[in-house]
Write a structure and sequence with these properties.
about 260 residues, alpha/beta, Rossmann fold, five-stranded parallel β-sheet, about 30% helix, globular
């Protein structure tokens, strides 16, 4: 997996290369930013994107793959971020969380459309008049950077969203017992019970029988399909998050939710 970098001092660039060599099977390689062949993810040093002229050429849809690196937190909540100074375990954990590269099954090329595309035939339309004023959404992922990336995408919806977070399957089950959600994003790989088992437990609750549950994974293997169908997930989104795919899926799901609630 190719990771681009922009604006890093030379010593920090060397440190990044050393950190990537620590990843299992050397999965990550540091590359120069080439706008004609963009890397899978892009690390930007500092919180001011305007300081880097080369970033102006990036397509809007690519910004969901940018991770800012710096002290504190950026004022622009759109971007995921990593703390500075760089810590090997934190950097690798963030990248693994953005890509789910720690999944066990061998990857296969995903179909052009999402697997388990329960909402594939639902027509995307403008928000109907009966649509509720906001959506309650639960994001279940143990990686803070991935939580940020999903939150940034959700904030771009035309309808206001109230996003709640859980870091484990156990925590998510506690939250769904206390709060009703319009849809749920669920990571496959988490500490404790995994996403498949969490989904299975959620589907046992009558109020969650028809709630869209969107699994987050870096790939869809035949085993994933079987596990997903058995656990009751509605559809998959692959990591890293693709802006256009994300908005396409979420618009379809939200329209379906509105029609279901109206009925």
């Amino acid at each position: 997996m190719q990771i681009g970098s922009v604006g890093f001092p030379e010593d920090q660039q060397v440190k990044l290369e050393k950190i990537f060599k620590l990843s299992k099977q050397n999965r990550y390689s540091l590359v120069d930013l080439d706008c004609s062949e963009l890397p899978d993810l892009l690390l930007v040093f500092g919180f001011d994107l305007s300081a880097h002229q080369e970033l102006a050429e990036l397509p809007e849809s690519y910004h969901s793959r940018i991770i800012l690196v710096g002290r504190g937190k950026p004022e622009n909540k759109r971007y995921a971020h990593l703390g500075y100074p760089l810590v090997s375990s934190r950097v690798l954990r963030a990248l693994d969380g953005m890509t789910n590269k720690n999944e066990e099954d061998e990857a296969v090329e995903p179909d052009e459309d999402n697997r388990f595309a329960k909402y594939q035939d639902v027509e995307v339309t403008a928000q109907p008049e009966h649509a509720r004023s906001s959506y309650q959404i639960l994001v279940v992922d143990d990686n803070e950077v991935m939580q940020q990336a999903l939150n940034n995408e959700l904030l771009q919806l035309t309808v206001p969203v109230i996003v709640h977070f859980a870091g484990t399957g156990e925590e998510a089950l506690q939250q769904v017992a206390q709060q009703r959600y319009d849809f749920i994003f669920l990571d496959v790989v988490m500490p404790g019970i995994d996403g498949f088992e969490t989904c299975t437990e959620m589907r046992k609750r009558p109020e969650l029988k028809k709630t869209p549950i969107i699994m987050l994974t870096s790939k869809t293997s035949p085993m994933d399909e079987v596990k997903g169908i058995m656990s009751g997930c509605s559809t998959y989104l692959t990591k890293p998050i693709e802006h256009e795919e994300f908005q396409k899926v979420i618009n379809r799901v939200s329209n379906w939710v509105d029609e279901f609630q109206k009925a």
